[in-house]
Write a structure and sequence with these properties.
Layout lengths: L4 H27 L12 H28 L21 H13 L3 E7 L5 E8 L4 E9 L5 E11 L5 E5 L8 H5 L5 E5 L5 H19 L9 H21 L2 H13 L4 E2 L3 H9 L1
Parallel strand pairs: 5-6
Antiparallel strand pairs: 1-2, 2-3, 3-4, 4-5, 6-7
Helix pairs in contact: 1-2
Length: about 280
Amino acid sequence: MQLSAGIKNFWKLVAFNLLSGLVLCLCVLAINGWKWRNLFDLPDFVGLVILVAVAISPLLWFLSYLKSQLLQPLVDHVQFNKISPKDYPWLDVASLTEETTILESLGFVHLIDHDVPLALGFSRCFAHPQKYCFAEIGQIFQVTGSVITRHFSLFSVLEQDWILAEINREVNNLDGIPYIWRHPQQIRRYHPHLKLPVLFQEHLKFREQICHDLNIYSCRDTSLAFLEKIEQEAAKFRRQTMRRKNLLLSMIETTLFEINPRSEWLGNYPKAAAKRKK
């Protein structure tokens, strides 16, 4: 998978700010007669620290500014704003109707149509009262109205903060940034070639295996209020993770993800399952 435009621009700006720092450092040396020793009549160690600080200051400012911009849309409070498909003239109504019909035939009940907080998008959520899981049909758009991605996902909330999510599309560049704030107890798998009924059965089968391996159960609450609570907790975790992590290291992670995308993220599940078997 090719690097996204956002990642390419990030590394261009990193190079630019490093070059700017080097130019500033050369200016300081020129003022000091091209000597780094006895810089401004200061001890050599202090002078060296000043040169290094001058060299990296543009990059540090850029990373700090970018992190503040990335944190800005990551609010702690998430609210599902109820919408109608008529609000999105570019919505692929045919696929939405088809997938809705399939889900309802599998026993899912429509909960809400809502907007997507971090993007221009449409989401239709469902719950299965008997199998205790949720489903989402989502479409994300560009400002021009063209579809960036269309997906369907199934997810189950388990005890001890475990969540299993299955998505029926290819991994793409939009998954790079969310990879930064991945949760160690949220399992995610991508299945681009599975039809919805098959994906549903695979989800239930894998969920049963996880529950057996970890000695936990599925949460039986499938209400809209419970779904909003889960999304609220996820929003807080995203913001806390983004605030805590080093941005440069995170962008390296994202770049490596885009170069070699991962269609499966098991988190701490393998370790937790192995530990319990001992």
